[in-house]
Amino acid sequence: MTKENKSKSDKKSLIIRIIAIILLVAGIVLIFNKPIGDWMIRQNQQSTLSSLTKKKVEANKKKKGMFDFSKVKDMDAAKATKTRLKNTANAIGALAIPDVNMYLPIMLGLSDDSLSTGGGTMRANQTMGKGNYPLAGHYMTSNGILFSPLENTQLGQKVYLTDLKHIYIYRIYMKKKVDPHAVYLVRNTKKAIVTLITCADGGVNRWAVRGKLIDTEKATNKNLQVFKLNS
């Protein structure tokens, strides 16, 4: 083999090796993308809940949120990791549905940062315990992450919300699948209710769960344990 042919052969082998390495790395990323994303989201949830304080809640309420639902994109590991590193998501409370093991921070608006951490408010200036308090969250196939437990809720179960000053207790009276464009669920109401929305049927439809306010309590260290804020 001439030196010229040998050089060409070496270059070809090098290119093949580089391509093989790229394909291997891409394969590994695809395999571990979901577990990494799920782990990051769990970390976002837990760290935000454990660091929640009245001072942070009041400061975050004054910030500007993003409420354009058309800009909401699917969740992935990159978005969850970015949120984890930036640590800029704005928590304004906590949500708990103990019967389905659902414990999440309530976030201001529907940005990627908000929805990779908890449930996002869907209207500006919505108020816990008054009118309709709608929250949206991503449905994840891994049980217990974000709004995935919502599909396991049943009528009569309790939903708890808190701004760390008061705890608002709702009882679920409606659970159904709706069209993705059911905007009436976001509109305000005269009655005090909570509305929880997440994807169903792979994004074709939405789960909509509603609860009516049945009690309001002053928040104490004891009753705040229902939210597992320090877990």
From TrEMBL:
Transmembrane segments: 14-32
Keyword annotations of the record: Hydrolase, Membrane, Protease, Thiol protease, Transmembrane, Transmembrane helix
CDD domains: Sortase_A
InterPro entries for this protein: Sortase, Sortase_A, Sortase_dom-sf
Listed GO biological process terms: proteolysis
GO molecular function: cysteine-type peptidase activity
Active site: H138, C199
Protein's UniProt name: Sortase
Species for this entry: Lactobacillus corticis
